[in-house]
Design goal:
single chain; 732 residues; eight-stranded mixed β-sheet; 39% helix
């Protein structure tokens, strides 16, 4: 094992053992919050402070060897140790144990404080200081701000007998408005910079960024939203779960209703013990884009394919998804600004990533304007999957009647005032209209197309893509004029226009390849025809929203990072900052998440197809009748029983059902009969599809009855105790 000396611009992620290169000091303060460490370093600089102080980032001490080294070199010599642990004792169990054992040997005072505003009796119990002293220290940190942090350090010095007792913590504003260059501001001052009729885009971020003077990414977002013609409303909060913060958001949203929200806070409002809580971000009824202020470095993000580390993924992606937020991009990364001499701590700041900020601002602006465009003027594209690449598989959504659902969407748009032109009479006519033009099937490329993109227009748009994308596409697929969809100097595309709405067949991942093996290929770059399809939608047609209709297309499987995409990632290069809506079957959240995270899709869950019981048929029905006859004859006629037993076992062997039922060679007849009976019962009771779901339609009659029966019989999770089926729960 090698030790990394963590200094000189290195940001540790806890995966390596590190030496923080600190000398012993009187007071040691360990926290996971970079902004808090930065604020304490500044507070230390403003004081005529006697005791020596060391600040350390808990995240840099994730490795057990790092903990052991730091405890031996620094903690063992301290007179007072303060641990501020986010997430409770289990999140730093080894570190807490080693520090507690060390201070027990040295006699130093220990205060173990929660990393948030809520008391944590388990942590407090690990402290050696009196409970009121622990609560006082927590109060200074909970309220925050320069004055409280200065007094927290004075309180530490007082505990060591080197200062007078400071005043009690002073409550600070938990939530409010911020403006670049002015700090905490009033609504009138913020709105004075707004355009009179522009849509509002709210930016939600943690108050700690103001306390730590770490608002660079927020400032960049404000500037970017202004550049896109939006009125920024930057709001700092303590937590979305905190009452004052939630009330402040509601009051501000009443004064300026946002058309889009860019949220840079983590976790979820409606998870765990807070399930059912009112989410203040949901009340304006507008899209909520989840932005990530990443805890990793830009270099780590740029070099990796994962996109975010495990901590960022949990706090900034997985949990926010429980509130229905749509992941946009990581807009900032950590960078070391300086090594603070007095505390020997690497002070880390958030550095905005300009092109990621710009992408999110453009995406937010498109969502905000979409709500304001009259329906008659909106331009929408509906994209149908086509896997494998045959005409018979156009619109092959899983458990979903994609053609009928597409027609239902078109009819609903028409009823809401969208210009849909003359619609097909039924789903079959819609598919026939698509098949009249070029499709992905061989031999169809010369059919007449409603949509064409000239090679000149394509080359102009292609030149705007990142160089790495252009080089990879040219290397794999050659020149654009050689694409199968090109003839007479233009791409002829699989799109059918209905007024201001187009319906298209999503292009294949490539040509002369096995579609089954390449549909999910993470390395196969798309051909020119694929790029031209989406370029026409974005640039020539001017689509303001896309609907990828049904599980599942191939856009979300194109090469690039798993999430927190860069401009070089193909889903972004192809789609750009377009609002993306995705009806997706409700029982496959895993693949729906792929689309949500990689294409910023708003997932609209739809029902599974109607379910019914499989019942028995053919030889199975014959076997079932023989088994029923066998059990009815039991105890009445042994000769007849023997004959029935032989017929049952012979028929099971001939049909191969004995193997399916798990009957071993030489197994006793009665045991074999029992296995056959059990297996047939399971088969006939199994749930199978009875048709396909149509978006916006509920099953009726026998389908409705059978679906409800299936739902009452379905267990949740492992099916144990409270997760048993509804029928079993009622019986219990």
């Amino acid at each position: 094992m090698h030790l990394l000396a963590l200094q000189g611009g290195v940001i540790g992620d806890g995966t390596q053992a590190v030496d923080l290169c600190q000398d012993p000091a009187d007071i040691v303060f360990i926290s996971a919050a970079d902004s808090e460490l930065a604020a304490l370093a500044r507070a230390r600089d403003t004081l005529d402070f006697g005791p020596s102080l060391r600040l350390a980032n808990q995240m840099a001490l994730s490795h057990n060897m790092s903990v052991d080294l730091y405890v031996d070199k620094v903690v063992a010599h301290a007179r007072l140790v303060i641990l501020r642990l986010l997430g409770g004792a289990s999140y730093w169990a080894y570190g807490l144990e080693q520090v507690a054992e060390c201070v027990a040997r040295s006699g130093a005072a220990l205060a173990v404080l929660p990393g948030d505003a809520q008391p944590d009796p388990e942590l407090s119990a690990r402290s050696t200081l009196p409970a009121e002293t622990v609560a006082l220290l927590h109060g200074y940190l909970r309220e925050g701000g320069p004055e409280n942090l200065q007094n927290m350090l004075r309180a530490c010095a007082h505990l060591l007998g080197e200062a007078e007792s400071p005043p009690a913590p002073v409550p600070l504003l938990k939530a409010g408005l911020y403006w670049p260059g002015r700090g905490i501001s009033e609504f009138e001052a913020v709105s004075a910079a707004w355009r009179r009729t522009a849509p509002c885009g709210a930016i939600i971020f943690y108050r700690a960024l103001i306390e730590g003077a770490n608002t660079g990414p927020v400032d960049a977002l404000v500037e970017a939203l202004e550049g896109q013609g939006l009125n920024p409303l930057p709001v700092f909060i303590s937590s979305l779960k905190e009452e004052v913060s939630a009330a402040t958001l509601r009051a501000l949203f009443e004064r300026a209703t946002p058309q889009v929200i860019l949220n840079a806070t983590g976790f979820a409002v409606s998870a765990g013990a807070n399930a059912g809580s009112v989410n203040p971000l949901a009340e304006p009824d507008c899209p909520v884009l989840q932005l990530v202020f990443s805890g990793s470095s830009r270099e780590e993000w740029a070099a990796g394919q994962q996109g975010l580390n495990a901590r960022d993924l949990a706090m900034n992606v997985v949990l926010p998804e429980l509130d229905g937020r749509v992941l946009a991009r990581a807009v900032s990364f950590k960078r070391p600004a300086e090594r603070h001499a007095a505390t020997q701590c690497e002070i880390v700041t958030y550095a905005a990533e300009p092109d990621r900020v710009d992408f999110c601002a453009r995406l937010a602006a498109r969502w905000a304007r979409l709500a304001r465009i009259p329906n008659a003027e909106k331009r929408v594209a509906i994209i149908l999957a086509n896997y494998p690449n045959r005409d018979a598989r156009i619109g092959n959504g899983v458990g979903y009647d994609t053609p009928a659902s597409t027609l239902a969407i078109l009819q609903a748009l028409k009823q809401q005032g969208y210009d849909t032109g003359a619609l097909p009479r039924d789903a079959a006519a819609l598919i026939a209209a698509l098949k009249a033009g070029p499709t992905n099937a061989p031999g169809t490329k010369r059919r007449a197309a409603d949509a064409q993109l000239s090679l000149a227009a394509y080359r102009k748009a292609f030149a705007q893509l990142p160089e790495s994308v252009r080089a990879q596409v040219r290397e794999r697929w050659g020149a654009p004029e050689n694409d199968p969809f090109v003839r007479e100097g233009a791409f002829h595309l699989a799109l059918k226009r209905f007024g201001n709405v187009v319906v298209g067949i999503q292009p294949a991942r490539g040509y002369n390849i096995d579609p089954r093996e390449t549909y999910h290929d993470p390395a196969l770059v798309p051909p020119h025809g694929y790029l031209a399809f989406y370029m026409w939608l974005r640039d020539a047609f001017g689509a303001q929203a896309l609907i990828h209709n049904g599980k599942h297309g191939n856009l979300e499987w194109l090469p690039g990072k798993a999430l927190a995409l860069s401009a070089q990632c193909y889903p972004e290069a192809v789609l750009g900052p377009l609002p993306n809506i995705y009806p997706f079957i409700v029982n496959d959240p895993g693949e729906g998440t792929q689309a949500k995270r990689r294409t910023a899709a708003v997932i609209i869950d739809h029902l599974t197809p109607p379910l019914t019981r499989a019942e028995s048929y053919g030889p199975l029905k014959d076997l079932e009748a023989l088994i029923d006859e066998y059990f009815l004859a039991s105890g009445l006629d042994e000769r007849r029983l023997a004959l029935l037993r032989e017929r049952i076992l012979d028929l099971a062997h001939v049909t191969g059902l004995d193997s399916d039922a798990g009957i071993a060679a030489g197994e006793a007849d009665e045991a074999a009969l029992q296995k056959i009976d059990t297996y047939i019962c399971e088969l006939k009771e199994a749930q199978i599809r009875d048709g396909l779901h149509i978006l916006g339609s509920l099953p009726s009659g026998a389908q409705e009855r059978d679906l409800l029966v299936a739902l009452t019989r379905a267990p949740r999770g492992m099916g144990e105790k409270g997760d048993a089926s509804l029928i079993r729960a009622i019986r219990a």
